[in-house]
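ESCALATION

Customer reports they have been waiting on this structure for their group meeting. Please prioritize. Original submission:
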Amino acid sequence: MNEKMLKSIYRYDKKEKTYHIDVHLDNYRDVYSEWDYSPFVNRDMDEDLLEYLMSCSYEIPMKKNLDINFFLLKTLHDTSREKRSIEGIHNYFGYRIRQVKTQRFRQMRNTLTFFVIGVILLIFAVFSTSLIKNPILEQLLSEGLYIGAWVAMWEMFSIWFFHINGLNYKIKHYLRLKSSNIYYQYVDK
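Update from on-call: job pushed to the front of the queue and completed.
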């Protein structure tokens, strides 16, 4: 998306060179999942809000700064709730980063497993020709082992180049949102 279009969608601070994601809330509680009643600093974020923040982060280039602004009515102003809410949002993104890193580690472990399986199948395919004397059975087994080996190797490359890269991309955006400034601003109706 070009810069002009971005500036028409998001508020832009020329002085700070920062894009602002503005979210209007009815209450502090709107930031969090309606099913989670744990303390503010440990709550799950509302899925729709998370999806919105992530899509905004994807639209705004990584080299640009971004701030998150929550707008509430002045009558709801509560400094301690605001502080706990901001801390909770940062904690939530930290939690999501840990989750995705764990997922990435599992995927990397799977690539190693598929590589080992592929190599073993290739070794068996090469040596199966000398072990089996029946030409039809030897050809069938050999080709089956080669196909299995290449499928395992393809799965390894698929995970590495598609899934792990996608997880790395998600981690970058979670880190970006975690490190962004979060402000509560209070307005009259």
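Sent to customer with the following note: DSSP finds four helices and four strands in the chain.
Escalation resolved.
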